């Protein structure tokens, strides 16, 4: 697997972000979206389909949850107008909950924007970026919600085309999380579920 240029790009991003980061030790500022890496020449048709959520990272995650968070599925279904129907399927016991949202694709800046934002009273903006992907085995995603009170919520996710990924991709995900000001303690890898639990 040729990860050389990908490692270099994320390493450079980390160095730039560290230089610009706020010096307040307890604050983790969300980076401006325009400074985030994004998959060049994003192929919306190739990206659509089912992705297993292998890992997540963000302010609200703790490493001790590694044995608690179960794997779930994010599905991107491309519409005729080039928007996506985005569905998350999360298993709870023998049940499976689904959430579906519409995302418009802005190919100019390589990000997805939540459609019908007015339906979500507490959201000011909700953007999703495909940081990098090979369209088959893995993808690293960046999610940023901005609430009406200007509070920001950052989450990144490691997607897999299957339920298992090589260690080097998990290490790449951890490195990217650190480049955003998170620590390894903010990275959680999910527990694989049976297919009936994943909807």
From TrEMBL:
Domain of life from the UniProt record: Eukaryota
Signal sequence interval, chain numbering: 1-20
Record-level GO cellular component terms: extracellular space
Xref: InterPro entries: Calycin, LCN2/LCN12, Lipocalin, Lipocalin_CS, Lipocln_cytosolic_FA-bd_dom
A GO molecular-function descriptor: small molecule binding
Gene3D superfamilies, per the entry: 2.40.128.20
Record bears the keyword Signal: yes
Keyword Transport: yes
Compartments, as annotated in UniProt: Secreted
PROSITE patterns associated with the record: LIPOCALIN
Domain Lipocalin/cytosolic fatty-acid binding residues, every copy: 48-190
Pfam families referenced in this protein's UniProt entry, alphabetically: Lipocalin
The protein, known as: NGAL protein
Keywords assigned: Disulfide bond, Glycoprotein, Secreted, Signal, Transport
Family the entry assigns: Belongs to the calycin superfamily. Lipocalin family.
């Amino acid at each position: 697997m040729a990860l050389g240029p990908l490692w270099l790009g994320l390493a450079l991003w980390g160095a730039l972000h560290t230089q610009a980061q706020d010096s307040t030790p307890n604050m983790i500022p969300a980076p401006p979206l325009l400074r985030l890496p994004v998959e060049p020449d994003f192929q919306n048709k190739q990206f659509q389909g089912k992705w297993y959520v292998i890992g997540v990272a963000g302010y609200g995650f703790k490493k001790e949850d590694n044995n608690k968070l179960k794997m779930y599925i994010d599905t991107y279904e491309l519409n005729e107008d080039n928007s996506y129907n985005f569905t998350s399927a999360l298993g709870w016991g023998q049940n499976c909950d689904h959430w579906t949202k519409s995302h418009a694709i802005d190919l100019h800046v390589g990000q997805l924007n939540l459609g019908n934002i007015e339906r979500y009273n507490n959201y000011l903006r909700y953007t999703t970026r495909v940081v990098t992907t090979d369209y088959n085995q893995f993808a690293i995603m960046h999610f940023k919600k901005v609430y009406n009170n200007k509070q920001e919520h950052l989450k990144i996710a490691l997607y897999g085309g299957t339920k298992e990924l090589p260690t080097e991709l998990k290490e790449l995900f951890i490195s990217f999380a650190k480049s955003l000001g998170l620590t390894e303690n903010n990275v959680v890898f999910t527990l694989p579920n049976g297919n009936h639990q994943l909807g």
